[in-house]
Every structure is written in C-alpha cells, then in structure tokens.
Amino acid sequence: MNNEHYADCARCPVRMSERICMNPDGAGPENCPTARKEELIDETREEYGTDDLRDFALQASIQEGSCYANRDAVPFVLRPVKTRIQEICEFAARMNYKRLGLVFCSGLRREAATVARILEEQGFVVVSVICNVGRIDKTEIGIADNEKIMIGQPEAMCNPVMQAKVVNDAKTELNIALGLCVGHDAIFFKYAHAPTTVLATKDRVTQHNPLAPIYADRSYYRKVHNPGF
C-alpha cells in the first residue's frame, strides 16, 4: 500500500521543536496534516466551539498541566508528579462528575475492587460492570469448541455491549476501562454514551504493561519486527 499521501506523524523527519504542529514558524513534510489539512483544522476549531466539548477539552488541558512541577522554571525540565488514577479522580472532580462507570475484565477483578474503593473514597458513586455480565455463551456468536480458552467447557463471552448498556442505563458521566480485551474495548467505546478513559490496558504476558515489547524491540522482543510474530 502506498502511504505517501497519508499522515505519518509517527515518523516525522523534522526535529520536534521545529515541527509546525509545535512551532508557528515550523515546517512539516508533504504529508503533514498540520501543514496540509487547513479545512480539517477549521472544522476542528468549530467543534471546539461547542460548549460541552470546549469545557471538556479545557479541563483536560488544565489537568495535563497540573501533572508537572516547576512549570515556571527555565530551562524547563519535565517533572511529573501525578499517577493516572490520581489524574482520573482529579479530572472527574474538575468536571463535577458524580457517577462513574468502571468496566473491567474478570482477570482484573481484584484490581477493580481496589479501584472502586478508591473512587468511592474520593466521593464518587461507582457503577462497576464485569466483562462476563449477562452470561451469554460464546457458542451463541459462533465460537467453535476448539477456539475457547478452556476447550470442552461452557464459556461465557466478554460482553462489552451489555457493559455499555448497564452504565448507560445508570447514566454514568464518565467511564473508566480497566483491562478490557483488544476488540472488546473498541466495542465498548462504540456503544457507551458517556466519554471513556482508560486506566489500564490488558497485556497478558507483561502484567498489563503493553509498552514493554516496544521498549525492548531491539533486544528481548526483537521478534515483533518479524511478520506474523
């Protein structure tokens, strides 16, 4: 596939401080969306003009800045001071949210119990929904027995549609995803009415640190560069 005309910010050849997305006098390659997509930029500005989105984006940016210390120091050196769970609690409070959804994988049920307790201690009402809610057997969507996790056993499917319907029914104001499977998380995002943030993503091998093979792609995880690894 020829990607020459598609955005490829991940491999931008311009030094970060000299990129047009960071510097009004900066530059970008031929496929730079900041330099070439003026119509989309104008459409985006219009979206941020709506009251709900503008306030959401404003509070998100304020939250982002609050996560660093010594912001008035010159030269500036990044000094992060807040964990993600703290950020989520603070952002929800900034937005004056009271009711939060917590959708989680059954494999992280212990962690979910701790997260729910933390959120409640911070003053939120928590609606928590496990992935197997509804107990719909995998065979109902066409899974063959040899495709199950435990072959020969009844197996309830992950049910992100019902997870979304439960939190929608409870009228949650912000949802938190904890360890949903690849694909199931995407279905939940599609069906949830309230915005969703992610506390942790699932990686069964790395104890839910999916960047581990990315950081070690030139050593222990070299295989990620091989087709079909």
Short account of what is shown:
The chain has 229 residues and is of the alpha/beta class.
Radius of gyration: 21 Å
Order of helices and strands: HHHHEHEHEHEH
Sequence stretches where pLDDT stays below 50 over 5 or more residues: none
Largest sheet: 4 strands, parallel
Q: State the end-to-end distance.
A: 21 Å
Classify the secondary structure makeup into a structural class: alpha/beta
> Strand share of the residues?
5-15%
CATH superfamily of the largest domain: Diphthamide synthesis DPH1/DPH2 domain 1
Estimated helix fraction: 25-40%
- Per DSSP, the total helix count is 8
Features:
single chain; 229 residues; alpha/beta; Rossmann fold; 10% strand
Explained architecture:
It is a single chain. The chain has 229 residues and is α/β, with parallel strands linked by helices. The protein has two domains: 31-82, no CATH class; 83-229, 3-Layer(aba) Sandwich (Rossmann fold). Helix content is 34%, strand content 10%. The protein has eight helices and four strands. It has helices at 33-36, 38-48, 51-66, 84-94, 109-121, 160-169, 184-191, 212-215; strands at residues 99-104, 125-130, 174-178, 196-200. A four-stranded parallel sheet has the order 2-1-3-4, with helices on both faces. α3 runs antiparallel to α4 (84-94) and α6 (160-169) packs parallel to α7. The chain is globular. The two termini are 21 Å apart. The model has no long low-confidence stretch (mean pLDDT 96).
Please describe the topology of this protein.
Blueprint: H1 33-36, H2 38-48, H3 51-66, H4 84-94, E1 99-104, H5 109-121, E2 125-130, H6 160-169, E3 174-178, H7 184-191, E4 196-200, H8 212-215
Parallel strand pairs: 1-2, 1-3, 3-4
Helix pairs in contact: 3-4, 6-7
